[in-house]
Amino acid sequence: MSKNYRSELVGVLGDPIDENPTGVVEEAAFAELGLVYRYITMLVKEGDLQNAIAGLRAMNYRGINLTIPHKVKVIPFLDELTEAAEKIGAVNTVINNNGKLLGENTDGKGFLTALENADISVINKNIFILGAGGAARAIAIELALAGAIHITIANRDPERGHTLTNLINRETNCSANCVVWDNKIDIPESTEILINATSIGLFPHVDRKPNINYETIKVDMIVSDVVFNDPNTLFLREAENRGAKTVNGLGMLVNQAAVNFELWTGKKAPLGIMEIALKKEFGLA
Ligand code: NDP
Questions:
Q1: Are strands 80-81 and 93-97 parallel, antiparallel or unpaired?
Q2: How confident is the model at residue 80 (pLDDT cuts 50, 70, 90)?
């Protein structure tokens, strides 16, 4: 019987990228199922994206993840988008179907699953999201589709904030408004779930936190951060100090990684193994 020495290639493109732990999670899953796949973590600068995608096509990559700053800019280089990716306007996962590159977005699905796993429902909830970038768009659309009643977007760039608000109002039954985030803002008392969907606090800037009035975080709020490296962000520590229940970015990461695994391999993801691998990486298991 002939042997197959060829690996199926997948990976992630981004900048910064060195601290992205997704490879650890995906490799643990490949090993568990005995699949000959390799997940490569690659530094790709903003201006090099088009060449990088052409390279992936040439090397027959099975798929790829995209992170900052490529999620929106990759779209013109792909062949088609799923309905979710089209609505969200950002892609974090590409599947190479016999040379045709399909863009999907699994960020919001991963975030929603992480909340559900912490016994938090978004149905009829009032949600406040900091940020209007790729992660914020994915999360806002998925939470709106899952039954959130109202979403407020706070963003530094007002145009991006308005674009996302309009998208939610147009595409879902959830209502939305936006506020310009140009100085320290208060979190409205009606907020039930507060989410930092910005990159503030992302490694190596772990000493930074969103510019909000932390006294306005109330004990009955759920507070979540998309930043996963460090999972115990200054933002979450501030919320914990005020007695709020917190959900860190690790759950979102592992759950979206599981969806990606299934899209690339067609096999059920070994979620428990993936969770353990990620927790070990962060010294939590
Ligand atoms: P984008 O570059 O698309 O968006 C970044 C957002 O952060 C924008 O809203 C931007 O505002 C805002 N922002 C950045 N710096 C500041 C600042 N100093 N003050 C105010 N706002 C700021 O990035 P992504 O949406 O792709 O990623 C955001 C974060 O989500 C990253 O930390 C990423 O690692 C994390 N992430 C985590 C995942 C997980 O699985 N846990 C999955 C995906 C992402 P503006 O529009 O004004 O520039």
A1: unpaired
A2: very high
